Amino acid sequence: MNRVYLDYNATTPVEPAVLDAMLPYLSAEFGNASSIHSPGQRARAAVETARDQVAVLIGARPQEIVFTSGGTESDNHAIFGVAQPLLAVPSSFPSPALHVITSTIEHEAVLNTCQALEKSGVAVTYLPVDREGVVDPESVRRALRPETALITIMHANNELGTVQPLEEIGRIAAEADVYFHTDAVQSAVISFTPPKASAHFTFAAEPACSSFSTAAITSAASVPARKTSPELSASARPQSWPAFLLAKTRSA
Ligand SMILES: Cc1ncc(COP(=O)(O)O)c(C=O)c1O
User: What is the CATH number of the domain that holds 195?
Assistant: First the structure.
């Protein structure tokens, strides 16, 4: 019996072009990119080429791209990276509590991270979507508080395929001078223009090139991203799936 696999939004076979590009580094060109010898330096050059290409894809600067293990790690970095330094300095948001805005249809990688923040005393607003599965930008504006530190609203939804109005939400975030993070893990396969008024931007190539473990997050000077995420809020997915996150600062 022929098997028909219809969940390409979750993962796909490896693109032949991706396989061709990766194969040398899984066999002959196996140098450690941190080593100073020439095989290591060739591997390093390949990583830097990939960084340049990713940056061009979303209009970021190469130095803003940091590769991570996947979408979950990247989402954790972006959300904890904004909230935790502020929590560490209580005078930043004395009272009422630090506030984050998200939507009810985010991936677990974002929802679980927001729930983890709630346990630390952060107030989180979970905005509903309309019958088309879309967040009303005006509801984002209404949810803003003086102590709102971050808006995290996804781009393409992994179950519904609905695409959120990021330009408008990004503009609202910029006007309010609030960090804006977007989980765009599902967006590599659809025509995508990163919002100009974005703060943090998450992006992933997961469905396009499955089974290679690659991810990234930008770490521009004004984004307080953390170096490691020991308390990752798990998604249901294995960590080995490829995805990458890019974050842009509001000044970028
Ligand atoms: C929208 C969205 N965000 C985050 C993730 C988590 O990515 P990963 O499985 O690479 O950790 C996924 C996984 O499919 C996703 O679809």
Answer: 3.40.640.10
By residue range, what is the domain housing residue 201? Answer: 63-219
* Structural domain includes residue 106: yes
Q: Which residues line ligand 1 (CB under 6 A)?
A: 70-72, 75, 107, 109, 154, 158, 183, 185-186, 206, 235, 237, 241, 243
Prediction pTM value = 0.79
Residue 25 near residue 214, CB atoms below 8 Å: no
pLDDT in tens, 131-179: 999 999 999 999 999 999 999 999 889 888 899 998 899 899 989 989 8
Rounded Cα distance between 216 and 220, Å, is: 13
Count other Cβ atoms within 10 Å, centred on residue 88. 9
Task: Please report whether residue 194 resides in a domain.
Answer: yes
90 CA from centroid of ligand 1 (Å): 32
Smallest CA separation from ligand 1 atom 16, residue: 158
Place of tokens 């019958």: 131
17 assigned to some structural domain = no
